[in-house]
Amino acid sequence: MKSCVAAFLLFSVLLAPAAGIAVTAESGAAKWYVVRIAGSPVGFASEGKRSDGDRVVFLSTTDLSMARMGTPLSMFLLVEEVSDEKGRYISSRMEMKTSITGSAASAEAFGDSVRHTFEAGGATRTQTLAWDPGAVTQVEAETLTRRWIATGTPEMFYTIFHVADGTFKQMRMVRDESLNTEDGLVAVRQYEGDGDTPTSTIWFDADGESIRTVVAQMGLEIEIERIREEDMATIDLEPNFDIIRESMIPVDGYPDPLDDVESVTLRLEFPHPLPGTRSFDGPNQKEVGRGDNWVDVSISRDTATKLTMREEERAPFLASGQYIQADDKGIKAVADSIRAASGLEGWALAREISLWVGAHITEKNFAQGFASALEVFKTCTGDCTEHSVLLTAMLRAAGIPARPAVGLAYSRGQFVGHMWTEVYVDHWRTLDALDPAADPIRLRVSAATTNRAVDERALVEAYAVVGGMKATVIAHTSR
Question: 250-478, what's its fold?
Fold first, then answer.
């Protein structure tokens, strides 16, 4: 296996809407945090707000260095939000850089609407959204959190604008007294939307200041802990920390060689009760048993579950998105030429396009954190995430509904985070441009629900479900 989505997962965590780390109350003062993954310090983050005339500016930065299977990976993230002195939203921006690629987003309020712009791979996309009248700014979210911590009530809800993808996110905060600490810190589980799996756990002090945030993702625990600025010099970072190797999940009894496997049934055991709404059914997998904290899943090369959608439901999976520039002239021209030269349609055409993508990406490495389809098309570089988004864009350009899927792939005794593509021809099917020989023997965890590359927040929630998971093979068949 040559790929992993761990770096993208990390940025999805850090891009999460507010209250994971509350901003400082003193104008001009900054809070500092150390970011640890599996206990290893990999970088620092800072957050604060300042007064700028009659405006309040919230600013957050994160700077990380690590490795992916020995390849250095640097990651930088900046998020800024401007509100008026009454806390009303004015504008926001995000800059994200990962090694050799980067993207940026910005938004500005116009009366009851907000104009959102996203830039990646040399392409710019702009949309105008109606402002959610119930949404609050970062400054208002801080105030709400402080008041809620002081009241002692069990739950709090609020909605915030997420500049990274131009969407409104509803947040639900739930106290968990079983995790409260002896030094008086209050533990809170954070959920997004109607999700039933917490995306993070946050410990607040009595003043509503966040001291520590922990996110469980696959085999990793990501921790963001408050420190003093002067303590930064005493913390030795570990730039050689390998995020892929550390995120792998051991699997007992997996058959070998993988190319000969026809089907495999897994017992998945979780450290927490499994949400009843979380299904592990997918195009090539099916739940065959379930308990409070375990599920048995059968994965087959044959279609196990025919997931179908009405025509109007498939429309978003033909559209262009932030990371999937299916309407780019170059991408569209290649997709049309493959169809014309091959004379193929449907599933046969999809497989032909997948082979083209696999051959087009000649530099299969870990230099990127997460690149857009247009960037991959131009650079011919990437791992599983880049194969997935480019294949998705090419298929959509050819008129075939497609979406990225994320989950786990087997490699040398362990599961590793992986990303591939689902194609709709009569029903959803799996297609992996990076590793077609092993396709579709994959453990699917989540698939995109919109026309964006992946639904970032749903992805974080999905991988939170498998945080701490144990996997054992209980049956298999081979050729």
Answer: C8orf32 fold (3.10.620)
